[in-house]
Design goal:
Number of helices: 11
CATH class of the largest domain: Alpha Beta
Shape: globular
Helix content: 40-55%
CATH superfamily of the largest domain: HAD superfamily/HAD-like
Distance between the termini: 32 Å
Radius of gyration: 18 Å
Structural class: alpha/beta
Order of helices and strands: EHHHHHEHEEHEHEHEHH
Number of strands: 7
CATH topology of the largest domain: Rossmann fold
Length: 239
C-alpha cells in the first residue's frame, strides 16, 4: 500500500498571526466607525471581499511605509506554528499559506520569523503617494468571500489521491474549507462548521494540529470527506 500524501493549507490572519493583521491596520490608521461598518457589510454578504478591501484602503487618508512597518513589527505570531512547519519539513509534507490579507505584512512578519521559505499566496498591497493600493492577482469572481481565491490554490496544488488539510479561523475560510478532507477550525470558522454541520477538529494552537495530523497519518484506513470530494468535482466539471 502506497504512503498517504497530505497537503496542508493554512490561513494567516488570526491563525498564524495572533490577530487579524488586516483588520488591525485599518482600525488603527482608518476611521474605526467606518471600518467596522465596512467589515459588517462583508460579514453580511452585502459586498465582496475585493470591494471590502478597496473600501478599507480608501478609509486611510494618508500613510507611509515606515509607519506601517513599525505597526506590523508589533504583531505577534502563534509560536507553535513553527512546530507545524518543522513537522511538515521533517515528514516532507507540502504546506501552503493562503491569505486574503496582504503580502506587505506577511512578507515582513515571515522575514522576522525566518519563514521566508514558505509558499505564500495572498493579495498585494502597495503604498503610492501615501495611499494604500491593493492588487488582487488571484481574484476569481466565483470566490466572493476571499479576493484571493483560496479554493483554486487548494485544487491546483493537490490531486485526487492527496488528503487535503485546511487550518483557519475566519470569514474568508468558510467557503474554502469545504473543499478539504480535514478541517481544523476556531473562532468564526468553528461556528460556521457547527452551524452547517461540517465535520471539523477544534484547535487552540498548532501543537493540537500536529498531534491530530500525526494520528491521521498513522491510520491504516483513512477516508476522504465525501462532501469535499463532491465540491472538488463540481469545480473540475465547470472548468
Amino acid at each position: 500500500m502506497s504512503e498517504k500524501v497530505f497537503k496542508i493549507f493554512v490561513d494567516f490572519d488570526g491563525t498564524i498571526s495572533k490577530e487579524d493583521v488586516g483588520e488591525a491596520i485599518f482600525r488603527h490608521f482608518g476611521d474605526k466607525g467606518k471600518v467596522d461598518s465596512i467589515i459588517s457589510l462583508l460579514l453580511n454578504d452585502e459586498i465582496t471581499a475585493r470591494e471590502c478591501w478597496l473600501m478599507l484602503c480608501r478609509s486611510v487618508d494618508s500613510i507611509d511605509e515606515e509607519t506601517l512597518n513599525q505597526f506590523v513589527d508589533k504583531i505577534e505570531v502563534d509560536h507553535t506554528f513553527k512546530n507545524l512547519e518543522n513537522y511538515c519539513a521533517k515528514n516532507k509534507i507540502e504546506m501552503y499559506v493562503l491569505s486574503d490579507g496582504f503580502d506587505f505584512y506577511i512578507n515582513r512578519i515571515f522575514g522576522r520569523e525566518k519563514l521566508t521559505h514558505l509558499q505564500v499566496y495572498s493579495n498585494k498591497l502597495l503604498i503610492k503617494d501615501r495611499n494604500l493600493i491593493p492588487e488582487f492577482p488571484y481574484l476569481d469572481n466565483s470566490c466572493s468571500s476571499s479576493a484571493n481565491c483560496k479554493r483554486n490554490h487548494i485544487i491546483n496544488h493537490s490531486s485526487d489521491d492527496d488528503f487535503t488539510v485546511f487550518i483557519g479561523d475566519g470569514n474568508s475560510d468558510k467557503y474554502t474549507s469545504q473543499f478539504c478532507d480535514f478541517i481544523f477550525a476556531k473562532n468564526d470558522l468553528l461556528r460556521y462548521c457547527e452551524r452547517e454541520r461540517i465535520t471539523y477538529f477544534p484547535f487552540s494552537n498548532f501543537d493540537d494540529v500536529v498531534l491530530k495530523i500525526d494520528q491521521l497519518r498513522s491510520k491504516k484506513r483513512l477516508k476522504k470527506r465525501h462532501q469535499a470530494e463532491l465540491k472538488r468535482r463540481e469545480v473540475y466539471l465547470t472548468e
